[in-house]
Amino acid sequence: MVDKARKYKITTVKRLFVLSGNECYSPDCARNLIAEDEKTIVAKICHIEAASPNGPRYNPSMIDDDRRSFENLLLLCDEHHEIIDNPLNESNYPKKLLLKWKRDHENKLLNKKMTQSTLLSQSVNILANLDSCDNNDDSEQSNNKSFNISKKIDYNRIKINKYLIEEYRVYAGKIDTLYNELEKSGSFKKEKLLKKIRNLYLRVKGEYIAGSENELEIIQNNSDEIIKKIETLLFEEIEETVVEINDDALIAVPIIMVDAFMRCKILEKPVS
Fold first, then answer.
1. How far apart are CA 267 and CA 258, in angstroms?
2. Positive or negative CA dihedral for 56, 60, 62, 64?
3. CA–CA separation, 79 and 84 (whole Å)
4. CA distances, 216 to each of 134, 137, 148, 220, 267 (Å)
């Protein structure tokens, strides 16, 4: 029986392969992760923080859902997988280094993908057409006033997702242009998508605060988990709704979420 820390979700594995560009995540390694027959997978899924107590970089404070999450995984060729997991090498391959490998490799592929004008359009429409399960009265829905993104990150005490927001925010202009183009064609309503994400945030937020008087403190202490849960809910709805998941959607969801964060649809706006 496969333990939960190694029971990967389909969307997690697909995201890893899409963002790998069919190359090992180790810098300067160009080994393919799919064999020459284009069918046989030769990649190894590697945990940055180990799946089990005897593994390298094990973090006892993590839960299995975090251990199997996209953020804790990278794809390697067999050789580099064996090298970084060798107990004799553990001090040479700490968590910080492997996270850098992951960020650098995935951002390289993302930057390449973002030059493709059609990357996000289908994904945006998929998300916009998901059935909204909430009918919250959102008085902040039209509040898109600009504010300092770094200040919002600090205000919400975001740690794990800080680098993602700071790096993906450069694509906000492309997202806005795409929204405008789709709206002109009559096939899309920007506010429908933003409200969908906003309502998911309000739902998740409600699960955490549950009538507490210290709402902001609870949100600040759980901001990274809240972001992750919203993203998970979006991916789950895509899996349930779409017969064949578009690879581009797996790249688009985090970018769209960062855009929603910048529009203050996710987490709290800093108090002036």
1. 11
2. positive
3. 9
4. 22, 20, 19, 6, 10
How far is residue 210's CA from residue 161's CA, in Å, rounded to a whole number?
Answer: 24
- pLDDT tens for 12-65 read 898 899 889 999 999 989 899 999 998 899 999 999 999 999 999 999 999 999
Residue 198: the pLDDT is 92
Cα separation, 237 vs 242, whole angstroms: 8
Nearest to 161 by CA among 28, 50, 258, 237: 258
Q: pLDDT tens-digit profile of 101-126?
A: 998 998 888 877 766 656 567 667 67
Neighbouring residues of 82: CB distance < 8 A, sequence distance ≥ 6: none
Closest CA to 161 of 253, 227, 104, 63: 227
- If residue 44 lies in a helix (H) or strand (E), which one and from where to where? strand 44-47
Q: Are 102 and 49 in contact (CB under 8 A)?
A: no
Among 65, 61, 76, residue whose Cα is nearest residue 5: 65
CA separation for the pair 270, 148 (Å, rounded) = 9
